[in-house]
Design brief:
By secondary structure, the chain is of the alpha/beta class. It has 14 helices and seven strands. Strand 6 and strand 7 form a beta hairpin. The two termini are 17 Å apart.
Length: 304
């Protein structure tokens, strides 16, 4: 799965980057220095070594890094760590990183900023509530935050803790064009894709097309093993009605009557579209994704 996001990561890291300025000698010394794994170790051992030692050459006590280091370079180094050595649900390396960053308030806030950009930004291909939870918990445990500064991470933690991978998804009611309302848990297929969308948005159209073209999704649909539940979460239904016929007939094309998903914080709809893959017991297999290839990969692994 790493290769799927590498190009996207690089594009994301360059978004909004200012042109590089010529640096002084002192600034040039504040580059991230990479650790090399033991050459004779197996690939698995090298990954484990890098997971534990990736930051060994970074001086967390030197707060000049927070102003002199190139932020894009640091994000690129952090992104490489996340995508190559951490894993999608392994919070422990992030906890250890935030603990090391706690050497000072300035350094801690710097790594909170980097983490927020990579793990929480809706546009980041590395966005992960599961990993970001470790950052939020570190903020709430930090002596550097007062009760007012804790309010934002407390709220973010409540939202991030919903629908976690490996746990049951929140149930919700959906309404179809006929006016009939049912709840998501009533779907008895082996897999359910919950597709929170606004059908007029460009990314939604791209995701819809990718799912239409997906061989494994089509096969599982035809076998009756998978159902796509497309749900429009907004109150104004004009956009939903306008694009109603754009959705395939075999999908459930629905809306959230009363906007309970948003009002009750059942799912994070801060960024739309969002894909959730659930198994027959409504356990979350993929959370808040925009990557159809990720769904395909998990479906392939789950149906072997």
């Amino acid at each position: 799965m790493r290769a799927i996001v590498i190009a996207t990561i690089l594009a994301f890291l360059c978004m909004g980057c200012a042109p590089k300025q010529k640096k002084s000698a002192s600034q040039r010394s504040y580059h991230f220095r990479y650790v090399q794994p033991p050459l004779q170790a197996s690939e698995e051992q090298q990954v484990a070594y890098m997971r534990d030692h990736y930051w060994d050459k970074f001086d967390f006590s030197d707060t000049l890094y927070t102003t002199k280091a190139d932020t894009t370079e640091m994000m690129r180094a952090y992104a490489s760590y996340l995508s190559n050595f951490v894993g999608a649900t392994n919070q422990e390396p992030i906890r250890k990183l935030m603990q090391r960053a706690s050497a000072s308030k300035k350094m801690f806030e710097y790594f909170v900023m980097l983490s927020e950009r990579l793990l929480h930004d809706p546009n980041s291909p590395l966005r992960s509530d599961e990993l970001y939870i470790a950052v939020l918990e570190a903020q709430l445990a930090s002596p550097y935050y007062d009760k007012y500064e804790r309010m934002a991470p407390e709220y973010d933690l409540r939202i991030a803790s919903q629908n976690r991978i490996g746990r049951k998804a929140n149930n919700f009611k959906y309404t179809v064009a006929s006016g009939r309302t049912r709840d998501m848990y009533s779907l008895k297929n082996d897999f359910v894709i919950v597709y929170i969308n606004n059908p007029g948005c460009a990314m939604c159209r791209d995701i819809s097309e990718a799912m239409k073209q997906s061989q494994i999704i089509s096969t599982l649909q035809n076998e009756g093993r998978l159902k796509i539940l497309a749900i429009y979460p907004d109150e104004d239904l004009s956009e939903w009605r306008k694009h109603f016929n754009d959705m395939p007939a075999e999908w459930i094309n629905s809306y959230d009557k009363g906007c309970h998903i948003e009002r009750e914080n059942l799912y994070n709809i801060g960024a739309i579209p969002a894909l959730y893959l659930l198994d027959k017991n409504k356990i979350v297999l993929v959370k808040d994704s925009t990557n159809v290839a990720e769904l395909e990969y998990i479906l392939q692994q789950s149906t072997k």
